[in-house]
Amino acid sequence: MSLSKQDVKKAADLARIEVTDQEAGDALGPLEKVFALIEEMQQLDTENVEPMAHAQDISTRLRDDIVTEKDQRETLQASAPAVEKGLFLVPKVID
To answer: Is-above-0.70 flag for pTM?
Structure first.
């Protein structure tokens, strides 16, 4: 895929990133390499490849889901300006 400076500047504009002509030109080469790699990878046959969650065959050790601290809600909310049904109330900031 061939990119132009205008393509880079348009992508930067869509991402709300301000780039100069020099920066767009400098980014052109690396971006073309990325797109070339993507095109190369799209040519691979992945029909019989199973999706995986991680690149290595590992499992994550999980701790038991048990309560380890006592309920301090009342104490922690005692200094709050407004609380209702155990929840902190805050002023509306968006209409």
So the answer is: no
